[in-house]
Amino acid sequence: MIARRLLFVLVCVLGVAGLIGGLLYGDATENPNPPGHQPQFYSQAEFRQVVDQLNAEFAAHWREQEVSPTPRAPDLTILRRISLGLTGAVPSLEEIRMFEEARPEHPEQWWLSRLFADRRYSDYVAERLARAYVGTENGPFLLYRRRRFVLWLSDQLHQNTRYDEIVRHLISDSGLWTDNPAVNFVTVTCMQDQNNQPDPVRLAGRTTRAFLGVRLDCVQCHDDNLGGPWLQSDFHELAAYFAPAGQSLVGIRDDPKKQYEYQYLHAEKAENVPFRPPFNQDLVQPNGTPREQLARWVTHKENRPFARAMVNRMWALMFGKPLVEPIDSIPLEGPYPPGLELLADDFIAHQFDIQRLVRVIAASDVYQRDSQADFEITMDHEDAWAAFPLTRLRPEQMAGGLLQASSLTTIDADSHIIKKLIRFGQEAEFVKRYGDMGEDEFDDRGGTIPQRLLMLNGNLVQERTAPNRLLNAASRIGALAPTDDQAVETAYLAVLSRRPTAEEARYFSERLQGAKGDKRAERMEDLYWTLVNSTEFSWNH
Amino acid sequence: MTNSLSIQKTDCGSIAHWNRRTLLKAAGVSGLCWLTPVAEMLARAAEKSPRGAPAKSVILLWLQGGPSQLETFDPHPGKYIAAGTKAIKTKLPGVLLAEGMEQTAEALDSAALVRSVVSREGDHERATYNVKTGYRPDPTLVHPSIGAVICHQLPVGMTEIPRHVSILPGTWPGRGGYLGDQYDAFKTFDPQGPIPDVQERVSKERFLERRKALQVVEQAFARGRLKGMEEHKTLQSTTIGQALKMMDSSQLKAFDVREESQSIRDQFGDTPFGRSCLAAVRLVEVGVRCVEVELSGWDSHANNHDIHKSQVKTLDPALAALLRTLKERGLFEQTLVLCGGEFGRTPKVNPAGGRDHWPHGFSVLLAGGGIRSGVVIGETDPDGGELKHPEEYELEKGKGIQVANLHATVLHALGIDASKELETPVGRPMALSKGTVIPSLLST
């Protein structure tokens, strides 16, 4: 019996060693093409045309702004951007090895095909979108299930459901929040002191910001006095669409008799407010419940603010910074930055296909600019997108990056449940201490001292870098890499997704030289600590 | 009057030529405005101010979950709504507290009690936001909590440790909101244990080696990248520098209540909350602007009376000892103490013996700098009726006092003009508080 157990352990150890060995030597073998990857498609006119136009718009913009674009970023840098933007973590060493083995013709498209096939993309992006749709609050007890909502959204993204269809569900679905998770968009606003009825005002604010990129809620209490076009009535007429929605035993349903009443500023008394959209009124199709009418109007092909808002949001996820700032305030009449109208057109013409939108952006020159050049890069370059903008990683990206960097293999849906649970718990704890950004994820509100302390001395960094050959990449690399140089290079790839410069390689190899056993594990821990505390690790670049 | 964030000369000295974005980031590190010459000068000036000067710090005893006013500061003994809860006499003639609050009762002549606070928020998260910021939640903006506002408005002085601290934080500690994350409360736990993240994990020599190595990686990254990356954008090394300074600061000892005598510690009670209140005194002593100490567990939807008995056992000695110790150490006049939660609880006891959420009349205790001692203002209906919610402050029977008015009063007591407007990052002018100062709460 004991012998059998020993044999089992031995087989496991050998198996793991084999896998790790492969990673360290860089000879991982796997079918190089991920599912759904169509190498020929990305060269075809249908796809190239829009990318070329996008490139032309930015090239013209750079000429106009008199800035020279930086060169193309190295492949691994681009993959790091994509992974951070769409999965919230750095590429794993395993993935990097796989990529370098495959040497695909369209690196970023190959990488995207891998991510789209994986729940990491849909889970992560669903959480980001959910923040705009329902915020981060726990919401009313018993009437709202945030996790259920995010999971539903993730399923939609995983299946690449048309974006307009997703939004129509959010705005107009009825029923129980448990049976029909989209309804949570409405129930999150249920008010305890109003008999648990949903709040049309909050719903109207969310709808215009998240789906249309318009901050109409700024005129909730008075007409726009900052020079904008909006009247107080614009907001409340939109809110009126949500008035019939009510909470009942069968969940959310619409009672056509329920009207929206509001007392405008300077008005003598409250009045019935009819429902009416604030612009593009000719796109209204008057049938169905008011919410169904609103959903159709919002997502109408000719209602361009809808497409623009999503382009701006996906751009923000990928670049760490929206094309138009703030993310939910895009002017209705322009002027627009290069790329926005073109991408909106393409998004509309291709049935609001989110994955296509991401692929087009990733294929563009502007996305692939380096943040480094042999000429002086100034803020003018960044502002014109002629250099990839440096943006601070958000807390969950820091946690995700840290956890992934300390594991040699990919932590994804296929990982062992224990590994996923550990990741989930550690990530939540880290984000809590680092400071969750809440809903306004694309505002840089500055780094903080507690954040730095957490990286310098915190538990997660300590736990995930300390000598531990079973769990931590640092120790494993130190023990298994055949040479000092390879150990340093492997650590750089795992943490910073690049190889060390000659100077860095020399510096750290020297420190590893002759160090054995525990000493070596300590030196590797120091190297990992150094890399994760660098500016490079904390910023998208 | 509009005071844009980009000209906080009181804090940061003459850097008005920076653009707002850079400044927000700079302020980021700031606490950074830590120890700039101007700040130092202002701090010294402030220290020299005569007696009767405004308070300089706030200690907020945050009772998360919504304490029942009837089982704490506002009993109605013998009434139907008391549901059997008894009351005790206090130092103030005719003013009663609930049974169990004996020590606080003895100290009540050095505090003010508002018994008629009202709000429109009945959900924990929204109500907490409302009471901590003085504003109702607004999807267009995150407002700063009172502690963040104070840190933003008052000079930094010689403080090397975070000026906004939350001890035993729950889910919603004070935050910087539109002032920036650097104004978020620094979160720490039972002061019996070490403060998180301020102790290096390796020997001093190894730590130095690591920092040296970090320079190698930093240089490699900066090469060919954005000009002035550190100063204009990342401030990474600057922030690390501040973090290191804090790690080395002797002021960190303020967190460590083990330095206090056993008898003092006993007075606060042998509980995490009691120890944290003692730490709050020590923190205020070294110039921390706002210490929030949380005592959670008041959400008594079932079994209300037992839950409150046990909660009050923790609260009572700590609150009384806090007031006493501040006085003994000469800190009472410069520290404003607040004690309350996000809402009260229903006058009617539910079938589970619990009380549910009740924002229509609850209590907040205030004491210390700038606050009149020995007053009780506002009253709740002994038969359990709702108070009205007047927009303006009017002290009348049956009417409540809006949370915002408490904020305006606290700011006023700290010498801050509550009506002063700041510009939010999108350029929207926003008053520090929209409330009205409550004159009867002020000492002068």
Describe the structure.
The complex is a heterodimer of chains A (541) and B (444). By secondary structure, chain A is mainly alpha-helical. Chain A is built from 25 helices and 6 strands. A two-stranded antiparallel sheet of chain A has the order 1-2. In chain A, a hairpin with a 2-residue loop joins strand 1 and strand 2. The radius of gyration of chain A is 26 Å and the shape is globular. Chain B has 2 domains: 55-195 and 256-275 and 282-441, Alkaline Phosphatase, subunit A (3-Layer(aba) Sandwich); 200-249. In chain B, strands 2, 5, 6, 7, 8, 9, 12, 13 and 14 form a 9-stranded mixed beta sheet that branches. A 3-stranded mixed beta sheet of chain B has the order 1-15-16, with no helix packed on it. A two-stranded antiparallel ribbon of chain B has the order 3-4. The model of chain B is unreliable at 1-51 (pLDDT under 50). The chains are: A mainly alpha (541), B alpha/beta (444). At the A-B interface, helix 10, helix 16, helix 19, helix 23 and helix 24 of A face helix 2, helix 7, helix 8 and helix 9 of B.
